[in-house]
């Protein structure tokens, strides 16, 4: 087997340069690569394009990279919950490309699967369709959308082994498995790094072929945006 | 006029046994509280869960289990978890039978606007465009008029639209209406104490009234 382990988040992100395109897994703050975000903050880079469903909150997740003005462009489906984001967007410091969530997911999946374009009904007749080819299939209109790929994809899993096989937990899976496939280099941080053989091959979500670097993250905060409970 | 809870309660009567359902944020989320217990339905959350359970107790809260509104939730026996591309395969592929969502405006041909107000901060469409472009049955929960009294049921949407010709049924605080295949809002039911005249006055789009319009009842 091929050992994909690196020692730390710092080592994993060491060669990420300014102006690169990064994919980051997560939905809201659920399943985000907390350790890699922290390690990126310690680096002196800027001009990043980040493909991520959301943009974090002011003081957590991708919001921290925005605070440090490391991000040139966000490609997302929903970017509420973040005042600093709003400020930078309105002042023109930040570009944003808003994409329907299913289109975002499928563009990432297509990027990882070697499919340069596909047709989807989402956005037909809306401003999302502007400048895009539409075509009729079986009497219904569809939009052509193209793949998304990244220099680095950064994902967070629950468990992983030295070969880079990953298992996700709960709804922290979200965009992580598809993004793992669509980065030239995929960095996976996991809560628990185990030896090869400890994960059941029947239950692997992301096969290690998609992962180039893996390490065990430290001190996960796993912040909750909306704690709702029944009494 | 219906309260938000009553709008949710009325929409819950549209739910049928065996359906997979996606509930949007806001009033649509409340619909889950009123689905009759004798129906077997499964709620889909587009961030990757089939079978949304109730909010957890304080000591069962799990940061790795949230709904699309980012609230902590629980899973049920028979629930399934999946990634975002699979989630939207369920939605676009027509496997989700019923979508219930909110709207800022609906037009008489079934266009919906609910994602953007020009000049205000744009937060994004999330999964709304995929949902409205795909579901066969879309029910909208909305207020009939804006806070300053302007009708939100229009000949054409004035706000940027989320999807075209997709809304089937609307439950507002005043009425239940269906969108006719050739256009127009067909008045089906009135909220308690609301007259046909009032609904007429507050519906800017084409309103179709056929026969007696029954008044909704609530337990």
UniProtKB/TrEMBL annotation, chain A:
Keywords, ordered alphabetically: Transferase
Matching entries from Pfam families are given as: CoA_trans
Query: SUPFAM superfamilies, alphabetically?
Result: NagB/RpiA/CoA transferase-like
Task: Name a GO molecular-function annotation.
Answer: transferase activity
Q: Which NCBIfam families match?
A: pcaI_scoA_fam
Protein name, as recorded: CoA transferase subunit A
Q: Source organism lineage?
A: Bacteria, Pseudomonadati, Bacteroidota, Cytophagia, Cytophagales
UniProtKB/TrEMBL annotation, chain B:
Record keywords:
Transferase
* Keyword Transferase belongs to the record: yes
> By its UniProt entry, which Pfam families does this protein fall under?
CoA_trans
Q: Would the keyword Transmembrane helix turn up in this protein's UniProt record?
A: no
Q: Which SMART domains match?
A: CoA_trans
Q: Which SUPFAM superfamilies match?
A: NagB/RpiA/CoA transferase-like (SSF100950)
Protein's name in the database: CoA transferase subunit B
Query: What species was this sequence derived from?
Result: Algoriphagus oliviformis
